[in-house]
């Protein structure tokens, strides 16, 4: 797995701690989310950004692959975790109805895409609607070999 030698003991201790929790305890919305940094980073293929890899108790192994790319600007649980551990937050969907005072509040809905283009990767979706941007990202991922369209129920 992805962990540096410096973080190995912390990650092992955390895994032992988190493994004693039930799925119900891990998904309680009001609970304090915990986690530990692995010391490693993943590269976002869409923009080249380094994304810190964390082990966290609110991500369930039974959900998808058991790994997620957190979106703290647009998911309440991810936002709480990011704020607690000072993980940078990048807003990528703008709700046009928000005032400037609300602009940095968690927003899980559809809107206009921002901060999401990279000349390096050839992905340019800024100023598109969420739906249109989603289709362009799928096309880009398939064209570049970074992913493929798949429907899950």
TrEMBL record:
<keyword id="KW-0547">Nucleotide-binding</keyword>
<keyword id="KW-0030">Aminoacyl-tRNA synthetase</keyword>
<dbReference type="GO" id="GO:0006429">
    <property type="term" value="P:leucyl-tRNA aminoacylation"/>
</dbReference>
<comment type="similarity">
    <text>Belongs to the class-I aminoacyl-tRNA synthetase family.</text>
</comment>
<dbReference type="InterPro" id="IPR009008">
    <property type="entry name" value="Val/Leu/Ile-tRNA-synth_edit"/>
</dbReference>
<dbReference type="InterPro" id="IPR002302">
    <property type="entry name" value="Leu-tRNA-ligase"/>
</dbReference>
<feature type="domain" description="Leucyl-tRNA synthetase editing">
    <location>
        <begin position="5"/>
        <end position="128"/>
    </location>
</feature>
<dbReference type="InterPro" id="IPR025709">
    <property type="entry name" value="Leu_tRNA-synth_edit"/>
</dbReference>
<dbReference type="GO" id="GO:0005524">
    <property type="term" value="F:ATP binding"/>
</dbReference>
<dbReference type="GO" id="GO:0005829">
    <property type="term" value="C:cytosol"/>
</dbReference>
<keyword id="KW-0436">Ligase</keyword>
<keyword id="KW-0067">ATP-binding</keyword>
<dbReference type="GO" id="GO:0004823">
    <property type="term" value="F:leucine-tRNA ligase activity"/>
</dbReference>
<dbReference type="Pfam" id="PF13603">
    <property type="entry name" value="tRNA-synt_1_2"/>
</dbReference>
<protein>
    <recommendedName>
        <fullName>leucine--tRNA ligase</fullName>
        <ecNumber>6.1.1.4</ecNumber>
    </recommendedName>
</protein>
<keyword id="KW-0648">Protein biosynthesis</keyword>
<dbReference type="GO" id="GO:0002161">
    <property type="term" value="F:aminoacyl-tRNA deacylase activity"/>
</dbReference>
